[in-house]
């Protein structure tokens, strides 16, 4: 767990938070068998917010954001994403999934498709975009994550950091309004972490609504507008990063922060 | 002080044959070659000696002699006055026939069972596990015999179909299941375009190939359309049309008719007879190998990590598309190599035909011909040569496939 | 910061929300049934279809087994007892059980011998199969082949003793000279064994078997499930060392040796076992010295061993390939020679990885031993198809006999494959 210094100046001109609600979670509970993994989660995310979710492993962070695009189903409570309520209705799930992008810890690129095909797959089959348009779009985003020259290679030929950037570009090709990051840098070497974080910062600078589960506290401090601390399946504390890091209120937060930053 | 000169030339010593890396491997290979040659000489010597005592020689001339036995299940014309080589050909084609049929049905069984075993329906997946375990752990020979005995013991004899109060009746008046085999109607053409039924079937084949190309064209067109406009046109009706319309027209023009099997005397005449041994062997090989294929299919699908499905779902792809575009292309790379080696096993196991009297190449060349002529060495050698060729062909196909789908990694 | 939104209120949880049980509709039998059997329309249909199939199977099989008759002495008597009801005629099993197990020629009063050999097999196999058992038990494993041979075939005890002495001499020579040079030790051991065997063979008097403690039983009198077990156990244990040698040969960088092994392996894997059995039954005797008689059992063992050795070699080759290259390099850099590197570093690891694969080959081979019935040996299947179904009392009792054969094979094969899975799980944790 490192606090990577982010050297560049962050351009905050477009980072505005509107009053429009992007995600609203009320009273969400989830069980794995008898185990109560998520306990009474209440959270409202406005458009343009950049939220970092931290917490010890097994605290339910990943489970929570995976509930937001129905990769996991919740058993109680209400989740409204972009004005659509997440129920077992397939139409709603489809709608939400095409609006919400997600990046995984292990990238999950499709190894049998080239980088370009990875990026155009969903636009072509879900958005019904003509192939040429989809490819232009993909190249645009690949340029943005700075790997346009790898477009015709296969994922296995790229480094971890490059793969994760492709995964971000792949999500962006669906033009999502919300991005979920599930520990995007945990599987990476330090120098690769930086390139992925840079990409994420650029995304934040453009005003994307982001929910990140991450241990990168430097990113949390400088990019997030809110940090949420979870433990034992519940939200223990949330605050602006400044306050969160300098003046944590709850004992568990203090303990966690001293472990993660205290050396 | 001595100045540096050329390194001293070591004289060749005998121990260098063992200790010097330059000679060591040569020594070993020479020894191995010597041992191999000596054992060949020894075995060859014994063979010559034994053959002389028995008054035999190695000679393939017997293949031209009259076979003198009948084969009921055959794909080409054959009578008992034909030669042994003709009998072997009949057997060879029968091997190919049963192996081909069994490969298709085993794949169907295996894919269904493998997919259902992964189903989230507890009962169905347990039932499929039961099927797989039962069939994998009992010898295929026992299955072949069980199915053959059941067929002959449970199915009615042809005479059960006779008389006013027959105890058995034909399915739809067209198919008769008897203990000698299954009789199905045979299609033929009343006013074919060509002289001879075989040629007419060739015409049908040509039309089918044409339809196949047309269907592919439609697919290509649909892909192009999708690339252009983004929406893939519905191809199913067109593909169906392209397959069915020419076929139906063809059949109408040529006057498709069916020759039904009918009871004449003590047996059925007409139609196509699929002999009991063929059915038993075909079914047993399919269901036995199907259990192995099911395991391969299951392993292949499971090997595609959950992350792949999740990533595809997170992009908004529907489950069917996730399967088609992401899971299957990856799973097939894992499934197909063991699948092909299962095909190899089917081909080899089809030699168990001899246990139920199906006239495959082992039963003709390695069975009756061998026993009649006493040409053990020649027959077994020919038999091995045939299976070896078949295996090498199938492995060659597998290698080509493996090379073509290898995942590109650094 | 100007961009902070209004709703980023600081929040601290009041306390711990306790773990609470899931809502009732999410637990219990109903939830289980809904999730596992009727989660969708399609699933519901599948469940009903599966239930129908199970009902059909059970409703046919259960009454048949339940009404089974065990005590009559022929099929016609069975039919009388059953009087038209569905029911099995298991009497054939109770009457012919010994024949199914031992064949129809093995002396009846000697059945205890193969039975004892079978029981001891478990003792001998245990230390090989379960690594936790004391290693000293392996001594019995080494002794077992000779003991089993003597028990099953009987005759003079001198024969297995000479065989054992030969092996002991080989082991001694290898221990003494093998340290200096593997090759000298290895070939010396082979020479010593043969020397003992030849001299010992001459020393055994001709009539030694006539009045032996255990009555001699010729190979052709062996049969039944015993024959399957014997072929399976013998051929698998012989083919493991041969398979290792072939696998190492195939990896060798000496072209001649490599190609000999490749051709052998690919040839054997390319032909069906049945053709190899034909070789054993009609062709192999031409290759032995003219006046020797090698009995069919031995010829079959030779061919099946070659067959399974080729498959085991491929499994072991996979194990060798799976070892990281660093292991070879580390062994070389320690100054070990080829034999030492293989024996101490490479093979122990490669074999461990290969065990599940070898067990699979063993199961396949054990099932394939039924093929010997095709070359008229009376193994379990041969007994059923031959003497028993041909007898006047029992002709027509297919289901019961074939079912019993299927059950016997299933028990053994399923047992072995469960063992293999257990081992695989265990090895998987060992290696982390």
Automatic annotation (TrEMBL), chain A:
Q: Which domain of life is it from?
A: Bacteria
Query: Which Pfam families did the record assign?
Result: ABC_tran
By its UniProt entry, which PROSITE patterns does this protein fall under? ABC_TRANSPORTER_1, ABC_TRANSPORTER_2
CDD domains, from UniProt? ABC_HisP_GlnQ
Q: Which UniProt key words apply to this protein?
A: ATP-binding, Nucleotide-binding, Transport
Decide whether keyword Ion transport is in the record: no
What Gene Ontology terms describe what this protein does at the molecular function level?
ABC-type amino acid transporter activity; ATP binding; ATP hydrolysis activity
Domain (ABC transporter) ranges: 23-257
Q: Which stretches are transmembrane?
A: none
Q: Which family does it belong to?
A: Belongs to the ABC transporter superfamily.
Name the UniProt record assigns to this protein: ATP-binding cassette domain-containing protein
Instruction: Report the source organism.
Output: Tritonibacter litoralis
Automatic annotation (TrEMBL), chain B:
Locations listed in the record:
Cell inner membrane; Cell membrane
Q: Could you tell me which PROSITE patterns the record lists for this protein?
A: ABC_TM1
ABC transmembrane type-1 domain location? 92-398
- Source organism's superkingdom? Bacteria
Biological processes, Gene Ontology terms: amino acid transport
Membrane-protein topology: Multi-pass membrane protein
Q: Which Gene Ontology molecular-function terms are recorded?
A: transmembrane transporter activity
Q: Is Cell membrane one of the keywords UniProt gives this record?
A: yes
- Assigned GO CC terms: ATP-binding cassette (ABC) transporter complex
Q: Which UniProt keywords apply?
A: Amino-acid transport, Cell membrane, Membrane, Transmembrane, Transmembrane helix, Transport
Q: Where are the transmembrane segments?
A: 26-43, 87-114, 134-154, 198-215, 236-258, 278-297, 380-401
| InterPro entries (alphabetical) | AA_ABC_transptr_permease_3TM, ArtM/GltK/GlnP/TcyL/YhdX-like, MetI-like, MetI-like_sf
The text of the family note is: Belongs to the binding-protein-dependent transport system permease family. HisMQ subfamily.
Q: What name goes with this protein?
A: ABC transporter permease subunit
* Protein species of origin: Tritonibacter litoralis
UniProtKB/TrEMBL annotation, chain C:
Offer one example of a GO biological process linked to this entry: amino acid transport
PROSITE patterns, alphabetically?
ABC_TM1
A single GO CC term for this protein reads: ATP-binding cassette (ABC) transporter complex
**Keywords (A to Z) from UniProt:** Cell membrane, Membrane, Transmembrane, Transmembrane helix, Transport
Question: Topology versus the membrane, per the UniProt entry?
Answer: Multi-pass membrane protein
**SUPFAM superfamilies given in the database record:** MetI-like
Protein name in UniProt: ABC transporter permease subunit
Q: Which organism is it from?
A: Tritonibacter litoralis
